[in-house]
Amino acid sequence: MHSNDNEEHWTDHAICRGADPDLFFPIGYSAEILREQEQAAKEICGNCPVQVDCLTWALRVGEPDGIWGGTTPEERRYLRRTAEAPARRPLPVIVVRGDASTSEHASAA
């Protein structure tokens, strides 16, 4: 597995280096404790000078676990879905012959 120098560089400046990994990768705890740990990890991320780099990396590689760039796995899945979703455009109104609402669509146009 090869990594490039840019990926290694941002991790050298992460303030979570040396922190308890269990804080960023909590498992097997009750929902309340899990939320408390996620919040504590996010607070550390919030003060980190490389938070954007960390989140960008986690999104790019599809990191499925842990707190990265101040986000939970669920938040990253949402960000990826939003980023990959095609732009939404209004669909044209299609009127089928014999449709009871044909006159409504025609008057709205």
TrEMBL record:
The record's section on InterPro entries has: 4FE4S_WBL, Whib
Q: Where does this protein come from, organism-wise?
A: Actinomadura sediminis
Q: Which residues bind [4Fe-4S] cluster?
A: 16, 45, 48, 54
Main function: Acts as a transcriptional regulator. Probably redox-responsive. The apo- but not holo-form probably binds DNA.
Q: PTM details?
A: The Fe-S cluster can be nitrosylated by nitric oxide (NO). Upon Fe-S cluster removal intramolecular disulfide bonds are formed.
* Record-given protein name: Transcriptional regulator WhiB
Superkingdom per UniProt: Bacteria
- Identify the coding gene: whiB
Q: Where in the cell is it found?
A: Cytoplasm
Question: What does the record's cofactor remark say about binding?
Answer: Binds 1 [4Fe-4S] cluster per subunit. Following nitrosylation of the [4Fe-4S] cluster binds 1 [4Fe-8(NO)] cluster per subunit.
Which cofactors does the annotated protein need, by name?
[4Fe-4S] cluster
Q: Which Pfam families match?
A: Whib
Q: Which UniProt keywords apply?
A: 4Fe-4S, Cytoplasm, Disulfide bond, DNA-binding, Iron, Iron-sulfur, Metal-binding, Transcription, Transcription regulation
Report the sequence similarity comment from the record: Belongs to the WhiB family.
Q: Where is the 4Fe-4S Wbl-type domain?
A: 15-78
